[in-house]
Specification:
Strand content: 15-25%
Shape: rod-shaped
Oligomer: single chain
Structural class: alpha+beta
Number of strands: 12
Radius of gyration: 43 Å
Strand order of the largest sheet: 9-8-11-12
Number of helices: 3
Order of helices and strands: HHEEHEEEEEEEEEE
Mean pLDDT: 75
């Protein structure tokens, strides 16, 4: 009877320990799968973070290239004075999980090569490539051990306003002085002939040299910051005695002024594809027996 009781206790003890052993076996089977899934999610997160880093670096490089399109050389070290575009790209990724190599950065302008004096509509594109190494063996078997990442950003090259050369006004016709009248003959040889009156000298069309001068030579839009105050100076006109010249300015936005110098501030950008205003100047002089008028103009990009 005692032997039967011992067998019963042993069977009960064995029954109590069976669920714990089964749980350990199940955990041993599922733990590698969970670790593999966790490592895969970690790898995908690292890839996504690296792609964002590369895209931000390409945008930073494009913004700097729009201001300094000739300051780039991926074969030389970063330099804040001569290689600014490469510096901006590398600094954007510094300290992140992914480091960008200088050889993975490229830049191209349209039109090529990058101009030192860009025109309206010229663009620059900065491309950043990367080679990401996966840690998860399962993902590496599917997509390969190395994933190639790339991002590009395009920006329009910045241009400065160029007033350009204003046309030189064409002088009007020169007035011809009246001839001195000859003494009238008289039948009396002893009579003295009186000479006629000497004609008064006339104003002639002046010579105009140079073009309209603009200061500052470049400006920025008045919105949202304060408007740029432009100063305009008329071309030089050869002075003449007893001749008065008048200057009439038209600033292209409905405003006008007079005098050989003028100042004006634009409230908005100009119109047309270049967002500019045409400043016109009319120089007039009263001549005898006719008047003379010369014109000059210049383009201003506020």
């Amino acid at each position: 009877m005692r032997h039967r009781l011992s067998l019963g206790r042993w069977a009960a003890r064995r029954t109590r320990h069976r669920p714990l052993g089964q749980s350990l076996v199940e955990l041993a089977l599922i733990l590698p799968v969970m670790l593999l899934l966790f490592a895969g999610a970690l790898d995908l997160g690292r890839v996504f973070y690296s792609q964002i880093t590369i895209e931000n670096a390409a945008k930073e490089g494009a913004l700097e290239a729009a201001r300094n399109p000739t300051s780039f050389d991926n074969t030389k070290p970063c330099d804040k004075d001569t290689n600014r575009v490469l510096c901006l790209v590398l600094n954007e990724a510094r300290g992140s999980l992914y480091e960008i190599a200088a050889s993975d950065v490229s830049m191209a302008c349209s039109p090529s090569p990058c101009p030192t004096d860009p025109a309206f509509g010229d663009t620059v594109t900065v491309t950043v490539a990367g080679h990401f190494t996966l840690l998860t063996p399962l993902l590496a078997q599917i997509v390969g051990p190395t994933v190639t990442l790339a991002a590009s950003s395009t920006a329009q090259l910045g241009i400065e306003p160029n007033p350009g050369a204003a046309p030189t006004p064409t002088p009007g016709p020169t007035s011809t002085p009246s001839p001195t009248p000859s003494p009238s003959p008289t039948p009396d040889p002893s009579a003295t002939t009186s000479p006629g009156p000497t004609p008064t000298p006339l104003c002639v069309a002046p010579a105009v040299s140079g073009s309209i001068q603009v200061a500052p030579s470049s400006g920025r839009s008045a919105q949202p910051g304060p408007a740029t105050q432009f100063a305009f100076t008329a071309p030089s006109v050869t002075p003449q005695p007893d001749c008065t010249f008048t200057y009439t300015w038209s600033f292209g936005d409905g405003a006008s002024a007079s005098g050989d110098t003028a100042t004006h501030a634009y409230a908005n950008k100009g119109s047309g594809p270049t967002h500019s205003y045409t400043v016109s100047l009319v120089i007039s002089a009263s001549l005898v027996p006719q008047s003379w008028t010369g014109t000059a103009s210049v383009q201003v990009n506020p």
